[in-house]
């Protein structure tokens, strides 16, 4: 069983996949992934960043859905996009159908205008006896929903959406969009990025399939996010 190297979470570029990080084959079962994680995590010389990277790798490879997304991202990186070049003589076909397409578009516009001009149906009035229980149920629902949301889920809910970040010292730019299924996408200094993320306590981990970057979350609010990797690498983010 391969032991994780110390350079895997230092921020330097690495070619290791999550499978190589845990030392398992691409067709390893969830049981084999867990066993490999237990052996790797037991190494005495791991720092906090390496432990987070190992935990993230085991979490992705143990989930059927997240593992399928990760394998898809690996295949996309291995297969360069196909570029189709049209010759000058290769003119697109179907020009004779344009009048019919224009006519169909006009019909759809008129139908939409007619539908918008229809008088709105008046809502049926409810008797006071039937309206009172509905109001009581509506009043109780927010309290039940608020009681069922854990602090970690609430923090992750604040993270969802698009953030535009700028480093006041380094000048580096970062734009990321976080999705509820645990994936993210965006640009870093103009280059496209995508992968998986985890938010545990005050640590935000971004894994693009080649390396894991761990950021300390200094502030997380509805309209403000501040993350840091030390050594002056501090990013202030806004919506």
Describe this structure in words.
The structure is a single chain. This protein is an alpha+beta fold and 239 residues long. Among the domains are: 6-78, Helix Hairpins; 153-238, Domain of unknown function DUF4822 (Lipocalin). The chain is 41% helix and 22% strand. The protein has seven helices and eight strands. The chain has an eight-stranded antiparallel barrel. A hairpin with a 4-residue loop joins strand 2 and strand 3 (183-188). The radius of gyration is 26 Å and the shape is extended. Mean pLDDT is 76; it is low at 1-13, 88-92, 131-139 and 141-147.
Output the number of helix runs: 7
The helix-strand sequence is: HHHHHHHEEEEEEEE
User: What is the CATH level 1 assignment of one domain?
Assistant: Mainly Beta
| SSE-based structural type | alpha+beta
Q: In short, what is this structure?
A:
The protein is α+β, with helices and mostly antiparallel strands and 239 residues long. Helices cover 41% and strands 22% of the residues.
Key attributes of the depicted protein:
alpha+beta, 8-stranded antiparallel beta barrel, 7 helices, 22% strand, extended, disordered N terminus
